[in-house]
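quick one, 359 residues, struct below
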Amino acid sequence: MGRHTKIAAAAACAPLIVLILVIVLLFGGGGAHETIDSAEKGGRVALDFNGDSVPSWATGPLREAATTCPEITAPILAAQIETESNWNPNAHNASGADGLTQFMPSTWATWGLDGDGDGRADPRNPADAIKSQAAYMCHLVDYVKGQQGLSGSVVDLALASYNAGPGNVTKYRGIPPFTETTNYVAKINRLAASKYGKPRPGGGDSSGGTGGVSGAAGPVIEAARKQIGLPYAWGGGGLNGPSGGSAPDVGVVGFDCSSLVRFAYYQGTNGKITLPRTSREQYAATQSRRIPAEQLQPGDLLFWGKSPGSIHHVALYIGNGKMIEAPESGKKLRETQARTSGGDFFAATRVQDPAASAA
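---
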């Protein structure tokens, strides 16, 4: 953060469904920026707090702090603390940022709160630091909501404001194109969606789906699921993880639809399957092996387009009528209901030879 003010399309992956094509790769049997989004509209995953993942002294303060405003959850706060200080209450940065949540002295003077009722606000007191962190983050949420024409989700913009200063978010009309800031936002989303959050039983965007998919599809789906909550980034994402996007997503670190699927298969098969880069190329590589919708299995790919030659979006089917996708600019990688209606539907048989899918 903490340095709050220190850091002074062909085959587009859009969700317009005209033609849906489902491709089995291996397993069976068994656009443009929006204006500022709410967390829900932006596809943020509904997660419960994994209290076992934080130091015992932090659990109570984090649960209490998460009631400050609905947008700032305990998983987000915990991921932010790891990113700021790696849970060191006495952390001090050469820039002057101090304590567990790395407040600059000038910011602490305004936002420092007494979290444990001992009569003083100390940035090195975890209870004080966490209460103050939540208060300031919720203030930043209100701030970005009040700005016109910002691009991105409320939470991401608040995180960017915490790191680079709200003035820079306003100046760049979204997450500033600073490497530190884009990495900061991406890391917090990733940690919140994996280490510090857990699927909400019985509901929420992250609860349905595979449960525990066994067999060869499991590692592929797990690789994709760990990226949920990261931003969509046109042209971003590689075989080994998220990366910076291209226009209109310059400065956004994440995946686009086809790079997410490509990453999941490469990681989930230990490099045995390397798919082509674009959704259109991925369809072309597997279109001879189609299956009907009623035969969908975890690990299948869903494709959309006006025709086989105009594929523009791909998602990973994970079972139980759910899929994981990188939807479009300004939104988050998410788990959602599989869209298999609204146009012609085609299916493909599973890949007999994994090498047939190689780029």
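The longest helix spans residues 126-145.
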